[in-house]
Amino acid sequence: MSSVLQLASEYDPYKILGVSRSASQAEIKRAYKSLAREWHPDKNKDPKAEDMFIKISKSYEILSNEERRSNFDRYGQMDENQPFGQSQHHGFRSFHNSFYFDESFFHFPRSRDFADSKYMLHHAQFNSDVLPDSHKRPYLIKVTSEWCFACIHIEPVWKETVQELEPLGVGIGIVDLGYERRLANQLGAHRAPSIIGLVNGRVTFFHQAVVREHLRQFVEDLLPQKLVEKITDNNYKTFLDSWHVENKPSLLLFDQVPIVPLLYKLTAFAFRNYVRFGFVDQGETHNARLLRMFNINTYAPTMLLFKEDTEKPVDIIQARGMKRQIMDEFVSNNKFLQVPRLVSQQLFDELCPVKQFHRRRKYCVLLITREDQAFLPGNKAFLDFATTNKKDVLRFAYIYQRHQQPLCQALLYNQAVVSPQVRGQVVILERRSQAGKVLYRSVSGGWNGSEEDKYLLHEQLELLQKDPTYLSSDATLPELNNEMAPIFIIQWMNAAYDYIIQIYDDLLYSNWREMMPILSLIFSALFILFGTVIIQAFSEPGDSKPRKPKPKEQPQTEDDASSRASTSSRPPRKDFVEVTELTDITYTSNLVKLRPGHINVVLVLTNVSKNALLRKFAKEVFSFSGTQTLHFSFLNADKHRHWMPSLLRSASEAAWSESHCDDDEESSDYSGHVLALNGYKKYFCIFRPVFTGDDPNDSSSETSEDRAGSKRGSSRATHIEVHHKLDRLGLWMERLMEGTLPRLQVPAWPMLDDTNNSFTES
């Protein structure tokens, strides 16, 4: 006894955690968390960190359990049977008392615990069996390896946890790093020991101290939230009445414990797609009415299952030691409503299975109806009929026509689903193949729930069981729409939430190896983003701030403009304005079929004024040449003299007269006019020359006769007049870019030929 007390004194859990013997559970828990963070082997590189961490975890395991704590206070014992210094950890004694090693300490393959062999996972088995099964139950997986000394320390706790959780329905697995490296990489486990949780195909790592209570809570946290709803006297009616919307039966568990048992949560997770689960705490004062209403025995857990009738349960089970097998069998026998609504192809396959040669025939009696108020009495009558005519070979269901239009059209070809008398339609069918082939027969007269309809349906069901050939019609049914599927944005939000949680978990525990793909993606995106910004910042400001043209550079003339006609779609260069002549070849592409949002600015000139106007035109529009949606062209009025009058006549007379005031629209001299043509929307804006008089630099003045003479041949007068025609074009271009210029609509663009009345459609 003295040696036991000596060991207890040397390994006192109170001293290890640094708390007094009268410390509360909250104080013990705070002390444990603080020390566990300090001495965790992943955080603390001290050689003694691992041993110290094991002592801290074992001390907390003892003091957090009132029975073990009481044993230590009375007898100085850490476990129920052994003192702390002689714990069940293989080889733990040898680290502190002697160099004694037994064969199991080294974990040779031949000495592996035989009980672990049934839990060993292999890569193919994991992907074919475990991953799909994780959508029905959570898995707790231990990653271990040979020569892993730390794996020995957690072995007793692992075995206790397996013995507790496996009967509840938790899947157990073990992965050996030495033999299943491929599976370990798939799980993201690169060191031993590691403990992993798997649910719904998602991997979660366990990062706390390996204590049975922590592992149990870890498994519970893996399950989705709101699997089980807390039910009281205030909300039980709403919970039971929701069968119509959810299309599921409702299961209530009455128990004395204040929290939902893990066994019940695991059952709810396995059958979450079929049944809704609620929990009633019998100790709550707000649940007295529920206990009286259903006459609940408060000395044993009780489960009530409700279907369409919310006042009376269809099945009940009561047992002191509720087992998982009993609960699974109870729920499996009541997965569907009396008359469920077909909302998905999966539900259709389960309710109305395809006929197999070795099985008895099963027929599906389907009511095609609507959710309108006028159809409710008929739907209720169909439910009553199904309840009183239950047979193993018959499955009753209903379907809403509006939600499953393709299937209704296939079954009711050339028939009206809804008649003026507000009648549904009953169809009896037998599925013959997975491809959708069915044999069926529609019950004549429709269905509104009258006694005559019930008698007729009952009669036809009797005939069907006597003669299977009674189903005379055949059809191929399309796949049903999944009415319960979440919309895309909900699916995206759930996936994003899981992704964020995974990143947070990896950052919190510095799991950098698993974080590398995510970090690589983030840094690549940041590099591309900032690289683009830096390149733009140090590039030449070509389009936003065009340089002034050099004196030697001249705008394009007729000769070089035609040579560049085929390249007019390229962005203009910085040092010149690319001006294309409108000819029979370029007219269609540069105007008639101009892309939406693009505008062609066209200068009208003659052979005499060509050089002067082009030079002035290039100077005025140069600052706008960097805009990708603007194109610049010129039209020779001497070659196409009828085009301008045709264009002006095609515009609305009111708009043209408003923009031209009192000028003669048929004036023969259109040189110096500039048109902004939107080929797609069929409108144009017009610029008219503002100066046609003398050159202000010339001191002499001319009379009207002189000006007329200059038009007939004076090159100097012509040069002065043309020089000022485009003086205010820059201001007009600014208004064009602002969108404040008046627009003249045209029904069609005129042709470039000499025919005055020729037009072309865009």
From TrEMBL:
Domain named J: residues: 12-76
What ranges does the record list as Basic and acidic residues composition bias? 542-555
What's the chief localization of this chain? endoplasmic reticulum
Q: Which GO terms describe its biological process?
A: autophagy
* Keywords attached to this entry: Autophagy, Glycoprotein, Membrane, Transmembrane, Transmembrane helix
* GO annotation, cellular component aspect: endoplasmic reticulum membrane
Which residues does the annotated region (Disordered) include? 541-573, 696-719
Q: Which CDD domains match?
A: DnaJ, TRX_DnaJ
Q: Which residues cross the membrane?
A: 518-538
Q: Where in the cell is it found?
A: Endoplasmic reticulum membrane
* Keyword Transmembrane belongs to the record: yes
Q: Which Pfam families match?
A: DnaJ, Thioredoxin
Q: How does the protein associate with the membrane?
A: Single-pass type IV membrane protein
Its annotated function is as follows: Plays an important role in regulating the size of autophagosomes during the formation process.
What's the protein called, per UniProt?
A: DnaJ homolog subfamily C member 16
The root-end lineage is: Eukaryota, Metazoa, Chordata, Craniata, Vertebrata
